[in-house]
Design a protein that fits this description.
The chain is mostly helical. The chain has one domain (2-191). It is built from 8 helices and no strands. It is globular. The termini are far apart.
Length: 194
């Protein structure tokens, strides 16, 4: 496990974007401002900010290094489970179901693609999104992330004139995760016609 963490760190250093701290700070500042506008109260804002932070960090890291670091995702999973009781409208059961659905939703394509299309990091990130957003909000986030990633894959494949053009899928899942955290229940209600 230590070797995997070390290789992730070495890979990130080699491909680090110039100005990465500024990009991440600007992204987080924007996300926090939007979270403040969306949140009903201080507690909800703090939870949104806390659970949005790993999504922003893994999105930037995946863009630059094509890796979703375990040292960000695993602590996020632990914190999401530990604080699942803190949300005003969901509980531990919603978090566990959401985590299982997120994990299972991405595990199937991971197995089918033998890790070449969907990587293990995507599966773990989907589990985090599910634990953080809960059931049924996770479905809205994952569907949005998958559709956005699929559209990007087609555009990148056409532009590169290759079906094998590589791109970072994590940022699209992270986008879906943010939507699930902030608006997941509303999207599900809208879809169900409520």
């Amino acid at each position: 496990m230590l070797n995997a963490s070390y290789s992730e760190a070495a890979l990130e250093e080699r491909r680090a974007l110039p100005g990465r701290p500024l990009v991440l700070a600007a992204l987080l500042a924007t996300l926090f401002a939007l979270a403040a506008a969306v949140a009903d109260d201080t507690r909800e804002f703090l939870l949104l900010a806390l659970f949005t932070t790993p999504l922003a960090a893994v999105a930037i890291t995946d863009i630059e290094a094509r890796v979703l670091p375990n040292r960000i995702v695993y602590p996020g999973i632990v914190v999401a489970l530990a604080l699942s009781w803190a949300w005003p409208d969901r509980d531990v059961g919603h978090a566990l179901i959401g985590g299982a659905v997120g994990f299972g939703f991405m595990l199937f394509p991971f197995i089918i693609s033998a890790g070449r299309g969907i990587a293990a990091g995507d599966v773990k990130l989907a589990a985090y999104i599910g634990l953080a957003s809960g059931w049924p909000a996770v479905m809205a986030g994952l569907l949005i992330g998958v559709v956005a990633g699929g559209v990007a894959a087609v555009i990148i494949g056409v532009a590169a004139r290759s079906r094998r053009a590589a791109f970072a899928y994590g940022p699209f899942l992270a986008l879906g995760g943010v939507i699930a955290l902030w608006f997941g229940e509303e999207v599900v209600d809208w879809y169900q016609g409520e």
